[in-house]
């Protein structure tokens, strides 16, 4: 799997509200360096949510307008940079 920084992937995201015991399928943005993505089995990613009703924090980024299509998602979404996690590529 040849993923690059900035790619959006669908994955099972651990839910902090459940003590990380439950997961939801969500888009996530790859943030790990391309050199690491080529040699490691894991990626560093940050999840996205379509819940845009809450005020953004300084660690969140709203994807809107033309960015929606270029990011490969369907609706306005918030990238939650405070929720970094690793994802196995297999």
Any key phrases for this structure?
Transcriptional modulator of MazE/toxin MazF, six-stranded antiparallel beta sheet, RNA endonuclease activity, mainly beta, globular, Plasmid_toxin/cell-grow_inhib, 39% strand, SH3 type barrels, DNA binding, 90 residues, 2 helices
Describe the structure.
- The protein has 90 residues and is mainly β.
- It has one domain: SH3 type barrels (Roll).
- The chain contains two helices and six strands, in the order ββαββαββ.
- A hairpin with an 8-residue loop joins β1 and β2.
- The radius of gyration is 13 Å and the shape is globular.
- The termini are close together.
- The model has no long low-confidence stretch (mean pLDDT 88).
- GO terms for molecular function: DNA binding; RNA endonuclease activity.
- This is Transcriptional modulator of MazE/toxin MazF.
- It comes from Nostoc commune NIES-4072.
Number of helices: 2
Radius of gyration: 13 Å
Largest β sheet strand count, sense and barrel closure: 6 strands, antiparallel
CATH fold type: SH3 type barrels
Which range best describes the helical content: under 10%, 10-25%, 25-40%, 40-55%, 55-70% or over 70%? Answer: 10-25%
Q: What is the annotated CATH architecture? A: Roll
Question: What's the quaternary structure here?
Answer: single chain
**CATH class descriptor name:** Mainly Beta
> What count of structural domains?
1
Q: What is the topological layout?
A:
Layout (H helix, E strand, L loop, with lengths): L7 E7 L8 E8 L3 H6 L2 E8 L10 E4 L2 H6 L5 E4 L4 E4 L2
Antiparallel strand pairs: 1-2, 2-3, 3-5, 3-6, 4-5
Pfam families: PemK_toxin
Family: Belongs to the PemK/MazF family.
Keywords: Toxin-antitoxin system
């Amino acid at each position: 799997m040849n993923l690059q920084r900035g790619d959006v992937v669908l994955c099972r995201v651990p839910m902090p509200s459940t003590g990380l015991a439950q997961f939801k399928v969500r888009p996530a943005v790859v943030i790990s360096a391309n050199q690491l993505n080529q040699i490691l089995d894991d990626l560093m990613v940050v999840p996205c949510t379509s819940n845009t009703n809450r005020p953004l924090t300084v660690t969140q980024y709203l994807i809107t307008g033309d960015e929606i299509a270029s990011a490969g998602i369907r609706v306005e979404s918030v990238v939650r940079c405070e929720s970094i996690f690793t994802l196995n590529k297999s």
